[in-house]
Amino acid sequence: MLELHRFGEIIKQKKYPINKGRIIKMSNLVIYLIGTALVAGGLAWGANEMGAPPIWIIIGVIIIFGMGIMAAVAKTRQKESSDTNN
Predict the structure, then answer these.
(1) Mean of the per-residue pLDDT values of the chain
(2) pLDDT grade, residue 27 (50/70/90)?
(3) Taking 80 as the threshold, does the pLDDT of residue 33 lie above it?
(4) pTM of the full predicted structure?
(5) What does the alpha-carbon distance between residue 40 and residue 23 come to, in Å, rounded to a whole number?
(6) What is the DSSP string of the chain?
(7) Confidence tier at 28 by pLDDT (50, 70, 90)
(8) What does the alpha-carbon distance between residue 38 and residue 30 come to, in Å, rounded to a whole number?
(9) Backbone phi and psi for residue 6, each to the nearest 5 degrees, phi listed first
(10) In terms of pLDDT, which residue wins out, 54 or 30?
């Protein structure tokens, strides 16, 4: 146990080993969000190159992020178990 002193308090924390040689697995949600960011960024860059006004680019990026978050949550959420023993 490691004791940290902060503003007169004693906080106890467990020591965790440093992640040596292990591969960190990303969740599917994070992968979806990274993909959404890449799509939104690419489309924003393309719209900028075409001369679209910045306000419409921002609105488009917000819509794409919203749709990406909704799709990511819908695809990665765990199914709820139903009680049929009533």
Answers:
(1) 79
(2) confident
(3) yes
(4) 0.60
(5) 28
(6) -EEEEETTEEEEE-------SPPPPPPHHHHHHHHHHHHHHHHHHHHHHHT--HHHHHHHHHHHHHHHHHHHHHHHPPPPPP----
(7) confident
(8) 12
(9) -135, 120
(10) 54
Residue given tokens 């599917």 in the structure block: 28
CB 32 within 8 A of CB 75: yes
Give the mean model confidence (pLDDT) for residues 35-64.
96
- Record the tokens describing residue 22, joined without a space: 């292990």
Which residue type sits at 31? Answer: I
Q: Which of 80, 70, 41, 73 is nearest to 57 (CA)?
A: 41
Instruction: Please check whether residue 32 is in contact with residue 72, taking contact to mean a CB–CB distance below 8 angstroms.
Output: yes
C-beta separation of 76 from 27 below 8 A:
yes
Widest pairwise Cα distance in the chain: 61
Domain boundaries, the chain: 26-77
